[in-house]
Amino acid sequence: MSNDPRFFAFLKERIGLDVASVGEAIIERAVRQRTQAVQAQTAAEYWQHLQSSHDEQQALIEAVIVPETWFFRYPESFATLARLAKARLAEIKQMRALRILSLPCSTGEEPYSIAMALLDAGLAPHQFKVQGMDVSPLSVERARRGVYGKNSFRGGELSFRDRHFTEYGDGYHIADRVREQVRLQVGNLLDPALLANEASYDFVFCRNLLIYFDQPTQKQVFDVLKELTHVDGVLFIGPAEGSLLGRHGMRSIGVPQSFAFSRHAEPAKPEPLPVFMPAPLPPRSAAPMPAKPRPFSTVSAHVVPIKAPASDADTLLSRIATLANEGKSAEARAACEQYLNNHPPAAQVFYWLGLLSDVAGSALEAQGFYRKALYLEPQHPQALMHLAALLESQGDTAGARRLQARAARSERADSEPKR
């Protein structure tokens, strides 16, 4: 019942969601839940109800979207923002307040992190304003309440909580001085009239969204983001999305793990490319796939099929991806070792080990793991790109370009129609 393609088409039209990026099961589950909630007896009956009710349309979208965020996620991005904000204020001679946009802002952790980072960096309240926007009214309403549970506070550095929050029941209430810096509203990035009368933004945060669109929608959304970002501004994206921006003429600003891009950054020396987490890749065989994340949630890597028993191997690979994306590097590395002790070598495992070493700053170790991944799978696209980033950061521009060319050829081959 719930695999009716009309529901996939509805979500594609309304929020740009590419069903292939999340898997049909996620959408089917949401449709079943909503069908039962409105006591519809058939798919056709629920479809008719969906078409006639704006509230139900939003309820289905809410059932598909499950926000996964926390304060100061990707902390280097906020440290970089603080440095760039000070430089930008000096550049414009403090003639106006900085304009910063966060979308999708989910339940508010990101826009409030932006405000806290800038206040902690010494910016005065009149020197910046943050605008948060999300397609989900429920998420925006939660953000406006400003009350957060323990799941919104992750990692070892939580001193900001003492500075900017007060205990509130079983959670924490954000301080008014932070709330006052942030304006929140409901909005859809695919709406042609989105922010049509607004001035461009000095900094735009748009994380882990593009990966859930097909290529035409990615291009459409990128054009909107480019229009919203000041010509001298910076766009912060998710770890998996750097290659997408690169294809559209954006360049990394050269700060590792900031995931920050500008239109025409031209560093004086070879630019270290950012480390990107793996984006979902199209399946190359009919082998079972691991469970996929819900949209706008933590990104998981595609698992390359291997000869080991699918259920156990895929479960462990999925666990590695989850641990790594949650920042649990030691546990992720241990899971990689567990995999290699119990299953045949797999390129994806060595890729993860390379990425974990890369993030930890162990460049030589990371190179070794990336090369092992490429030995097992010579056209592994993410290993190619990350090894290229390492080589370029070390001044081996020629070697980096060769690997990037290999990755580009692989991408073109995958996109060409098979005869």
Q: What can you tell me about this protein's structure?
A:
With 419 residues, the chain is α/β, with parallel strands linked by helices. It folds into three domains: 5-64, no CATH class; 75-262, Vaccinia Virus protein VP39 (Rossmann fold); 310-415, Tetratricopeptide repeat domain (Serine Threonine Protein Phosphatase 5, Tetratricopeptide repeat), CATH 1.25.40.10. The protein is 50% helix and 11% strand. It has helices spanning 5-15, 19-22, 24-37, 43-52, 54-64, 75-91, 109-120, 137-145, 159-164, 176-179, 215-228, 242-247, 310-325, 329-342, 347-360, 363-376, 381-393, 397-415, and strands at 98-102, 128-134, 147-148, 165-168, 171-174, 182-186, 201-206, 229-237, 251-252, 260-262. Strands 6-2-1-7-8-10-9 form a seven-stranded mixed sheet. Helix 3 crosses helix 5, helix 6 crosses helix 7 and helix 13 (310-325) packs antiparallel against helix 14. The longest helix is centred in the last third of the chain and has 19 residues, at 397-415. The radius of gyration is 22 Å and the shape is globular.
Characteristic key phrases:
419 residues; alpha/beta; Rossmann fold; Serine Threonine Protein Phosphatase 5, Tetratricopeptide repeat; 3 domains; 7-stranded mixed sheet; 3-stranded antiparallel sheet
